[in-house]
Design goal:
The complex is a heterodimer. Chain A is mainly α. Chain A is built from 16 helices and 2 strands. The chains are: A mainly alpha, B alpha/beta.
Chain lengths: 421, 272
């Protein structure tokens, strides 16, 4: 080291500043990209690959067993079923990033449904008021958990396990003498959750905007990097990626448009995923979430307000659970004692884990909520179509969750071995 | 105790910080008693001592982790109070702890800027951060192949380098290194010692805490010995021998170490 003269700074027209080190394995061109990809997979950096492969297998199997599974009518239904639990799963991704857990999301979603139904139908509040009250209740529950967790250091597992029961009790108490309440079909909540689909032209316009926006954002970022003397993306690679995105978005939208089209509720779920992805990957708050999940002590010493980060995450998780509960109530057009019960809790957590968010904290992405819930709902919808008993359905969903957790643990181990922890 | 000011650094060293009469108690234990310490710019001062001598406590007083019970801290002849890590940071005192405190799941850039990220219109300015990271790492001649790989994949020496580089982000004047070579191999130790010399060249006041006498003699300009929470001698590295320092650390000229040295030459002590 001492014998070596410090390398000169980057000169224009030469190698970018971040690619100067001779030990870096250069992966230029298409072959290089494939090699880099293989290296990453072997190193245990699986990303969303297992879930995409898994989804393809699930769709192929069910498509062969029952061709109706891949019909556009069924896929439209599938997309609408994803929205509610998927929204809950976004919150689960956030708490998992902190290596915490929330087991009461199902109960919170049920309570939110009950508050809206009782407020709107039972007490004739304006629907907006009822909706805001339900979301506020979710946020308050999150605040309560966060206070217990950050002030007294109670593990979130225990707090939210207690919450699972306590909030279920609150849900039953709110419903009280009403028991089961039907939401009127002409209310906007039910209309939004059941009937509101995008017109065909609007869905294509969204695809076009998304692809153009992606290209522009990446192009500007790349230009900025090159101006700063760092490596950027070549125009052809960028064009290829944008074309890929066009296919990935355009084909499903076209196929869904063969039937009723893209539901606005599904679109709002995807929009929430994108918004959370932005906040997680592009803001100081998101960086802080990953840091706290990776090494709390390091985050604290770096001056991050660990308590505030934990508070924000718990509050967001319960709020997303309440939002999901509202969507589920709208889709069912009812709220009752079993709203938010059954497998909602486990499905939301399973979706986050299957989508690739680690249970050990500090690793994951908002997109895992989207990918994971697609897997869960595909299995559920497929098994319903082949007329399997619900006993088997539960067992299979449980097995898939187990598989996802095993993959998570294995890839964590091989990441350690390959130095990518 | 002699008044020592070394002139080995390029620029004339200026006193940045002076601690006098620092005392600290933990319950019934008097961890520090009337300790004095001076830190000069462009100079490496090593704090040595046996286990429990008060090295870490003294550093924690400086870093604001454990405020002193008694004593006076002056920066450029003005009295300052350091009652929290934030105060220390605001005064330009950066600390690299022994456990490094890096987030393994984040990449080098994210770790360097953690808690002080640059933003552009509310968003992280990754380009500016990456560019400045490279500039900083090049200035330190750090051997990091890529700043976009997770810190987990770096070697011990590289991790130490990242931790030290991170301490320089806030433009500090004093850098405290707590046992920077404790967990490193021979080559990596040499890299970190080079890095410490580069910090001195860049006119930082460097405080080095180490158990390793060879490392201390290799890079320190001044050596402050603590024993049982009190100052027990201050030496210029160029003039002192390892025996002098060991004697000051153990508190006696006649002890197991010196008796052994008398019968058998200790490797590494013949030369100076």
């Amino acid at each position: 080291m001492s014998a070596k003269v410090p390398e000169p700074g980057p000169e224009p027209g030469t190698v970018a500043a971040d690619l100067l080190d001779e030990r870096l394995i250069q992966s230029a061109g298409f072959g290089g990209a494939v090699r880099a990809f293989t290296r990453r997979i072997r190193g245990g950096d699986l990303g969303s690959l297992p879930v995409v492969v898994g989804l393809a297998i699930i769709w192929a199997v069910f498509g062969i067993v029952n061709p109706r599974f891949l019909s556009s009518i069924n896929l439209v239904n599938l997309s609408m079923q994803c929205a509610a639990v998927g929204t809950i799963a976004i919150g689960v991704v956030l708490v998992l990033l902190l290596a915490e857990i929330d087991l009461s999301i199902g109960s919170v979603s049920g309570l939110a449904a009950a508050i809206v139904a009782v407020g709107f139908v039972g007490h004739a509040w304006p629907l907006w008021t009822a909706v805001v009250a339900a979301i506020a209740a979710g946020a308050l529950i999150g605040l309560f958990y966060a206070l217990l967790n950050t002030r007294f250091g109670v593990p979130s597992f225990v707090i939210t396990l207690a919450g699972l029961l306590g909030i279920l009790g609150a849900q039953l108490w709110v419903l009280g003498k009403f028991g089961s309440i039907n939401l009127p079909f002409d209310s906007w909540l039910v209309y939004y959750a059941q009937q509101l689909y995008m017109p065909e032209w609007l869905s294509y316009a969204f695809v076009a905007i998304a692809v153009a926006g992606y290209w522009l954002a990446k192009f500007l970022a790349s230009t900025k990097r090159k101006a700063a003397g760092l490596s950027g993306v070549s125009a052809s690679a960028l064009g290829l990626r944008a074309a890929g995105l066009l296919v990935v978005l355009g084909v499903p939208v076209w196929y869904l448009n063969r039937s009723r089209g893209v539901g606005v509720m599904f679109l709002s779920f995807v929009a929430l995923v994108l918004i959370m992805h932005f906040f997680l990957s592009r803001t100081r708050w998101g960086r802080a979430v990953f840091a706290v999940g990776g090494n709390v002590e390091a985050a604290r010493r770096a001056g991050i307000n660990v308590r505030a980060v934990a508070m924000s995450v718990f509050i967001l998780c319960s709020t997303f659970a309440a939002l999901g509960g509202l969507m589920a109530a709208g889709r069912l057009a009812a709220a009752n004692q079993s709203s938010g019960g059954g497998d909602i809790n486990l499905n939301a957590i399973a979706a986050a884990v299957i989508g690739g968010t680690s249970l050990f904290g500090g690793r994951g992405s908002a997109f895992s909520a989207l990918l994971g819930i697609l897997v869960i709902q595909s299995i559920s919808s497929g098994l319903t179509l082949v007329n399997l008993d619900s006993s088997l359905r539960y067992m299979i969903t449980g097995a898939v969750l187990l598989l996802a957790v095993v993959i998570d643990s294995l890839s964590r181990r091989s990441r350690r071995a390959a130095g990518r922890a | 105790m002699e008044e020592a000011t070394s002139n080995t650094a390029a620029a004339a060293p200026q006193r940045i910080l002076r601690m006098t009469g620092i005392s600290k108690r933990f319950g019934a234990v008097q961890a520090l008693t009337e300790v004095e310490l001076e830190i000069y710019s462009g100079q490496v001062v090593a704090i040595v001592g046996d286990n429990g001598a008060g090295k870490s406590t003294l550093v924690k007083v400086l870093a604001g982790v454990h405020p002193a019970d008694d004593g006076r801290i002056e920066m450029q002849d003005a009295r300052v109070s350091i009652s929290s890590p934030t105060d220390a940071r605001a005064l330009g005192i950066a600390t690299v702890y022994q456990d490094l405190a890096l987030c393994d799941n984040l990449d080098v850039v994210a770790n360097l800027w953690l808690g002080h990220e640059l933003t552009y219109r509310g968003r992280l300015d990754e380009v500016a951060m990456e560019k400045q990271s490279w500039k900083l790492l090049r200035e330190l001649s750090a051997k990091i192949p890529s700043v976009r790989i997770a810190v987990a994949s770096l070697s011990g020496g590289q991790r130490q380098t990242v931790a030290i580089a991170r301490s320089l982000i806030g433009e500090p004047r004093i850098v405290i290194l707590d046992e920077p070579t404790a967990a490193l191999g021979v080559a990596q130790t040499a890299e970190v010692l080079n890095l410490i010399e580069r910090l001195r060249e860049r006119n930082y006041g460097v405080v080095l805490i180490s158990h390793n006498m060879a490392d201390v003699m290799a890079v320190a300009d001044r050596i402050v010995v603590l024993r049982l929470g009190r100052n027990n001698g201050e030496f210029l590295a160029a003039e002192a021998t390892s025996e002098d320092i060991v004697a000051a650390i153990t508190g006696a000229t006649d002890n197991a170490v010196t008796r052994r040295a008398a019968t058998r030459p200790v490797p590494g002590t013949e030369e100076p």
